[in-house]
């Protein structure tokens, strides 16, 4: 006599999920919208038939289908792996379309950022980089790495470049090895920034020796971006009143950058 088998709780859950998914696939029609808080496993099942029912696509799917990718927060392996997957998918789907990479990041891992840069170069796709909020460290590097003429910034973004930062500990030999590795990354990043911006290598080395913050106008003159995106016309009258603020020393602020951002 065969030994009776007891179904686990997970098997009941899986069977129920398949049944519900089958029911949805039969009953969903065009113009129906379902807002579900599924985990990634079940969201993939929805995406499988979302190509037929476009209204099921969530916001991230909508932007990805229109070649918009978002590099936000710390640049780490998890974020970059997700972006690389999307880039390779977009390249496979349509090799002629450009990637629009929106950046709002304080920086992060050098190797993760370089992996993302290499993936973009590998696909040989035109890349439109757009900075919003903050593009610092590796975020500024990725901003500058976009296709010439397609590197944009919003007026109030702050852009910062500096040399690599790392913590080192261990015995003398280990420290020497890590210092050499850090210097390699510094030279590599400086060389690539020099290539992106058309600045001399000595200029890049001097400017990245310490944190160098820039307005979008200064970043445009430096060669990191190509264009400052304009704000709405309704903002123009209020910005002209900035010169009335007497408590701010002229040496601490560049009014020309404000006028440029809102009046060009």
TrEMBL record:
EC number: 3.4.21.92
Keywords: Hydrolase, Nucleomorph, Protease, Serine protease
Entry-linked SUPFAM superfamilies: ClpP/crotonase
UniProt enzyme class: hydrolase
GO biological process: protein quality control for misfolded or incompletely synthesized proteins
Single GO MF annotation: ATP-dependent peptidase activity
GO annotations of cellular component type: endopeptidase Clp complex
Active site, UniProt feature: 137, 162
InterPro entries listed in its UniProt record: ClpP, ClpP/crotonase-like_dom_sf, ClpP/TepA, ClpP_His_AS, ClpP_Ser_AS
PROSITE patterns named among the record's database cross-references: CLP_PROTEASE_HIS, CLP_PROTEASE_SER
Top-level division of the source organism's lineage: Eukaryota
Family: Belongs to the peptidase S14 family.
HAMAP family per the UniProt record, alphabetical: ClpP (MF_00444)
Protein name per the record: ATP-dependent Clp protease proteolytic subunit
């Amino acid at each position: 006599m065969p030994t009776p088998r007891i179904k686990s709780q997970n098997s009941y859950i899986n069977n129920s999920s398949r049944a519900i998914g089958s029911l949805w696939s039969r009953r969903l029609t065009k113009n129906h919208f379902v807002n579900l808080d599924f985990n990634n496993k079940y969201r993939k099942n929805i995406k499988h038939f979302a190509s037929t029912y476009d209204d099921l696509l969530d916001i991230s799917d909508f932007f990805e289908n229109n070649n918009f990718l978002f590099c936000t927060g710390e640049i780490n392996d998890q974020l970059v792996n997700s972006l690389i997957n999307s880039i390779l998918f977009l390249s496979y789907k349509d090799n002629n379309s450009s990637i629009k990479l929106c950046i709002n990041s304080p920086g992060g891992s050098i190797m993760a950022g370089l992996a993302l840069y290499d993936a973009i170069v590998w696909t040989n796709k035109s890349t439109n980089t757009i900075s919003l909020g903050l593009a610092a460290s590796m975020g500024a590097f990725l901003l500058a790495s976009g296709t010439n003429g397609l590197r944009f910034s919003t007026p109030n973004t702050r852009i910062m470049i500096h040399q690599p930062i790392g913590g080192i500990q261990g015995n003398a030999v280990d420290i020497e090895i890590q210092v050499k590795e850090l210097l390699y990354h510094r030279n590599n990043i400086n060389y690539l920034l020099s290539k992106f911006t058309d600045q001399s290598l000595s200029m890049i080395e001097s400017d990245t020796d310490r944190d160098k913050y820039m307005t979008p106008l200064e970043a445009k003159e430096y060669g990191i971006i190509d264009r400052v995106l304009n704000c709405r016309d309704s903002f123009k009258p209020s910005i002209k009143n900035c010169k009335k603020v007497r408590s701010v020393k002229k040496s601490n602020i560049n009014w020309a950058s404000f006028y440029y951002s809102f009046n060009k």
